[in-house]
Design goal:
Elements lengths: L5 E5 L1 H7 L1 H13 L3 E3 L12 H4 L1 H16 L5 E3 L2 H16 L1 H11 L12 E3 H7 L2 H6 L9 E5 L2 H4 L2 H4 L9 H7 L4 E2 L11 H4 L3 H17 L4 E4 L2 H9 L1 H8 L7 E3 H8 L17 H6 L4
Parallel strand pairs: 1-2, 1-3, 3-4, 5-6, 5-7, 7-8
Helix pairs in contact: 1-2, 2-16, 4-5, 4-6, 5-6, 7-11
């Protein structure tokens, strides 16, 4: 029997500290699909839209230190977070192909007796799940989700910069949709599918951020979606926590369940909502769960 590959799990700061129930669903789903993971003493990735713009060299060094943890064990990284995935993969690529930057970073890392060698790869969890034999996923579905219409949202950092990440088609990603379909759920086509969720804009201006989010919700609802399926913690928080703000700002009622892909899979695999902490969602999925016999 072929040896099962083991990854170093990189859940990132946001999931571990603010929405740990997503990690819970991921671990249960990975166990069922024989995606083996182990932990490491990782730090912040760091964020691809913060430190990078202020101090590029420190951004490279911090990310390289995380990559080295996986290198030391000869294991690829699997990331649960779009932003972490983008940072780690971009830095990995940059340092593998730029000897000058690699030398500068390794000079910094000497202070902790570490050296970046560029011997491992970085994977997004959607890529890894998508690579699992579809029959293995389908054979574990005990709650057929046929009839459930969902809007898929991959998020910006999952696909771009596409020339480096090469995760999926950057303008028409299919992997998230194809995994969702294996549960019986049906992804709807909606005009704003590739639109940003607005989370980044919200750091500077609340009103345009909420307008972007409203446009996305209205488009998906019009297409018949009962829930959103996402694979990014920043997108999850933006979409799950800001529906009350949308309701107040636009005087329209919004209560659309937001599910991480691993939560959808866990439910389809017969894991109860309580086991994966779905009661901690802001947009309560109670009605959706009852309608599709998932309680």
């Amino acid at each position: 029997m072929a040896k099962v590959k083991e990854y170093k799990m990189f859940e990132g700061c946001v999931i571990g500290n603010r929405i740990p129930f997503i990690e819970a669903s991921a671990r249960k789903v990975f166990d069922i699909l024989d995606i083996q993971t182990s932990e490491g003493p990782f730090s912040c990735c760091p964020d691809p839209t913060g430190l990078k713009q202020v101090d590029h060299e420190s951004w490279l060094a911090m990310a390289a230190r995380n990559l080295i943890i996986a290198e030391d064990e000869g294991k690829d990284i699997i990331s649960l977070c779009n932003g972490c995935f983008q940072t780690l993969k971009v830095v990995n690529q940059e340092l593998k192909n730029d000897e000058h930057e690699k030398e500068k970073v390794n000079d910094i890392l000497k202070s902790i007796d570490k050296q970046f060698n560029g011997t491992i790869n970085v994977k997004h969890f959607v890529e890894v799940v998508h690579a699992v034999n579809p029959e293995k996923i389908k054979e574990n579905v005990v709650k057929d989700l046929t009839g459930l219409k969902v809007a898929c949202h991959t998020g910006c950092h999952y696909n771009r910069p596409s020339e480096i990440l090469q995760t999926d088609d950057p303008m028409k990603p299919v992997k998230l949709r194809e995994v969702v379909k294996l549960t019986g759920a049906m992804p709807v086509d909606y005009e704003e599918e590739m639109l940003c969720c607005g989370a980044g804009t919200g750091n500077a201006e609340e009103e345009p951020s909420m307008q972007i989010l409203k446009n996305k919700f209205d488009s998906a609802i019009k297409a018949g979606a009962e829930a959103f399926i996402v694979n990014c913690p920043a997108c999850f928080q933006q979409m799950d926590t800001n529906q009350r703000n949308l309701t107040k700002m636009f005087d329209e009622e919004y209560n659309v369940p937001i599910l991480y892909l691993t939560e959808l899979l866990a439910l389809a695999f017969g894991i109860s909502p309580d086991e994966i902490g779905m009661r901690y969602h802001r947009a309560r999925p109670t009605e959706l769960l009852e309608k599709h016999n998932l309680t």
